Amino acid sequence: MDHDEPSITSSDEKLVEEIPVAAGLESTPPISFWQLFRFSTYWELFWLFIGFVMCCIKALTLPAVVIVYSEFTAMLVDRAIQVGTSSTVHALPIFGGGKKLTNATREVNNEALYDDSISYGILLTIASFIMFISGIFSVDIFNLVALRQVTRMRIKLFESVMRQDIGWHDLASKQNFAQSMTE
Q1: 79 with 110: CB under 8 angstroms?
Q2: What stretches of the chain show up as alpha helix (H) in DSSP?
Q3: 163 DSSP assignment
Q4: CA torsion angle for 122, 123, 127, 132 (degrees, to 10)?
Q5: pLDDT reading at 108 higher than 90
Q6: C-alpha neighbours within 13 Å on the C-beta side of residue 10
Q7: Angle at the Cα of 133 (from 33 to 140), degrees rounded to 5?
Q8: CA-CA distance, 155 to 149, in Å (whole number)?
């Protein structure tokens, strides 16, 4: 082996070239989940909490829609049978539907069914609006906070690289600066 060539070692039939590593570029141990937020400000943590609350609101609207749908379906069945007492419902009476009828005539059942469908439509519109708005806010809040944190991390990386001595850049051949700034 010539002394002018870099030292090459063989491991599992692969050639690995030993290159000196600059100080600070050694591999670091993984960090915990909570340490990811060390670049966050208190204001950003507050917005993350608001985004989480919006996600919870959005998640709770789907069960509400299922409850309203099941009540309306129960009213459809009760109005079609026209015998006995209507089921007890809780959401439809908020907007004038879900009247409890006992052995009502066809006309009264049709009028009550019309009121049920109006109440159903209003409740679904409200639930859809809440789901849409909370979904928009949660996504936008998370994107805004992530953008601010990533920008802050990139600025810190750039500042730390610019503070290094010129010799550090010669030894840092494994570091692709442009790629690390965009990641």
Answers
A1: yes
A2: 42-81, 106-162, 166-171, 177-182
A3: T
A4: -10
A5: yes
A6: 1
A7: 40
A8: 10
Angle formed by the axes of helices 106-162 and 42-81, to 10°? 160
Block residue for tokens 């965009």 = 182
What span, in angstroms and rounded, lies between the C-alpha atoms of 6 and 16? 10
Which residues, in sequence order, are CB contacts of 137 under 8 Å at separation 6+? 50, 51, 54
User: CA separation (Å) from 55 to 28, 64, 104, 125, 133?
Assistant: 34, 15, 44, 19, 10
pLDDT (tens digit per residue) in 17-75? 566 655 656 677 888 888 878 889 999 999 999 999 999 999 999 999 999 999 999 99
Structural domain spans, the chain: 65-154
The two tokens of residue 48 are 């993350």
- Please give the Cα distance from 120 to 70 (Å, whole number): 10
